[in-house]
Structures are given as C-alpha cells and as structure tokens.
Amino acid sequence: MLFVVASFALTVLCWGVYGPVLHWGAADMSTIPGGHARLLPFVCVGLAYFGVGVVAPLVWLWTRGEQGHWTTSGAVLSLIAGTLGAIGALGIIMAFTFGGKPSYVMPLVFGGAPVVNSFITIYLAGKAKEIGPVFLAGLIMVVLGAVTVLMFKPAAKPHAEDLRPAEAAAADVDGNGDREGVVDEAGSFVLQMLSIATVVVCWGAYGPMLHKGQAAMANSRMRPLLCVGIAYFLIAVVGSELILSVKPEPSHWNPSGTFWSLMAGAAGAFGALGIILAFNFGGKPVYVMPLVFGGAPVVNTFFTIVAAGRFTEIHPFFWAGLILVIAGAAIVLVFAPRGGPPKVEKKAEKAPEPTPSA
C-alpha cells in the first residue's frame, strides 16, 4: 500500500501542475493579446507523450526488459485507454472554446469522472458486494471536497490586456474576420455540456481500461505506457496537425510557449506512469482514480495560488474543501475493497510441477 500511495501521489502532483503549466504555454503561443492557443500546445503535449511514453519505454524494453509480455488484448485495451485520455484532454479544450469557464467546467469534470470510474470498475470487477457504506461516504467526501476547492479558490485578476473593448475582445478571428469557435448562445451551451460529458466519460473509463490492459500483459509497466504514448501522439500530434492544415488558429511557435507546453505534456505522461505503477503494486481503479481526481485539482489550485501570490485571499470554504478531500482520501484508502490476487499470479500457482526422478 505504501508503494501504491507513492505511485498515485506522483500522478496527483504531475496532473496537478499540468493545467497551469499548459496554460502558460497556451498564452505564450497565442498571437492575440490576452488570448490562448488551442491546438499548438496540444501538439506539444503529444510530442512529450511520444518522448516519455514511446521512446523511453522502447529503450527500457530493449536494454533491460521487464516482466510481462505483449498480448493483443492488452495492447488494444491500453491503446483504448490512451485514446480516452487524449480525447478527454481535447474535450477540455473544446469546452473552453465553446465559451465554458474553468469555474464550472473543471468542478463538473473532477466531480463526474471519479463517479463514472467507480461504477465502471465495480461493474467490470463484479465487486459490488464488497463496496461498503463507509467507502462510499469517503468517495463522496473526496468528490465534494475537490469540487468545493475548485469553486472557492481565489478568482483570477483580469490582466490589463483583457480589459479591452468588446470589438477587441472579439479579436479571435480568421483571415476573413469571422470569429472562430463562436456559435449562438443556446448552441454554445449544448456544445459545452457535450464537451464536458465527453471528458467525464473518457476520463472516468481511462483507469479501468488501463488496468485491464496492464493485467492482460501480465502486469507489465512499460508496454501499457507505450500504447498510451502512441495513442496520444496520433491524436494530439497527427490529428491536430490535420485540423491546423485545414483551419489555422491565431498562434505561432516560440521558445517559451513550446517549452512550457512540452513540460505540461511530460507531467501528463509521468502522471500516466504513476497510475500504471499504482496498479502494478496492487492498487485498484475503484480507489486509485477517485483519489487522483480528488487530489490533482487541489494541487492545481495551490500551485496556481502560490504562483500568483494570492495565498492570503483563500476563502474559508476552500480550507473546508481541502480538509474534506484529505479525510475522504484516508477513508477511501482504509476501507477500499482489496479483492483477491491478480489472475496472472493464480495462473503461475497452477503451473504443473516437474515429475520426480527415479
């Protein structure tokens, strides 16, 4: 359990700083004052996943090897997990593109994803009878605490370049003067909700799929990560470049924006590795993923507050939400269903013994 906690703590830390760092890169890459690039930072995330999640595992497997082996089902499930993670990340970008605000987009995502995760995990594992009321209470505490932290974090101060007339605020235009990503209000709300729902479903199913893929490859660590990296590369790099070739956005490559976006992608990839390690040490998606989704927004909020120098403006409900997350996390860890040993180990135990010699 100590290794499980250390592993998903790595994910909480990495995914907690992912958003703010990617935000810096998106701001630096935009050609609009006060604006944010969308797809170019996503390309950098895909490139970072390729380096950390494809190149590094290939080198590791080639030079050192590890337990486990390739299987078709394991590779397919891990690729599906990576695809779900990448589509979820793109869904966040699309929710903001359609006019969504972080004040309600992120609470809905981090509140809904762990619930979806828990239901999928319980269904796939057939462990509904092992879920006790105390565990469910802890899970609810983690979700409510994370949502409270996000809702009552200090509001960002508007930059001077954001306080411009409405005509300038609509500067996100293409060459013909048509504002990009803007639809009528009713359609915009529907698209926001669809984007948020996509993220909740994709990120909720991410952990169980990755866990199944890893188990199918005999608890390998590098092989599932490699599949996740390939999926991110195809969606974030190849997919984004295809979209940009048809519909360019007001952004450009520059050193600072590229650096911060690559750092964000590396943080995301190491976070994925932390989840794989947590599963490898015996952690289960039913409690690993809710704790990740509960802890990451707390780290994200603290990181943002400290970076902005606004520690003294924290609302009392923010502290209450933080306490709720910590207490709920402790309850979830203590009362989580442990289950039996992995199927791979059972197979190994049933291996036929050698026939004694005369």
Describe the fold and architecture:
This protein is mainly alpha-helical and 358 residues long. The protein has one domain (2-156, 185-337). Helix content is 73%, strand content 0%. It contains twelve helices and no strands. It is globular, with a radius of gyration of 22 Å. It comes from Posidoniimonas polymericola. This is EamA-like transporter family protein. Keywords: Membrane, Transmembrane, Transmembrane helix.
Fold topology:
Blueprint: H1 2-29, H2 39-63, H3 72-97, H4 102-125, H5 133-151, H6 166-169, H7 185-216, H8 222-246, H9 255-280, H10 285-308, H11 316-335, H12 343-349
Organism: Posidoniimonas polymericola
Protein name: EamA-like transporter family protein
Transmembrane segments: 40-62, 74-98, 104-124, 131-152, 186-206, 226-246, 258-279, 286-311, 317-336
Mean pLDDT: 78
- The ordered string of helix (H) and strand (E) elements is HHHHHHHHHHHH
Radius of gyration: 22 Å
Characterize the overall form.
globular
Q: What's the total count of β strands?
A: 0
Transmembrane segments: 40-62, 74-98, 104-124, 131-152, 186-206, 226-246, 258-279, 286-311, 317-336
Keywords: Membrane, Transmembrane, Transmembrane helix
Protein name: EamA-like transporter family protein
Organism: Posidoniimonas polymericola
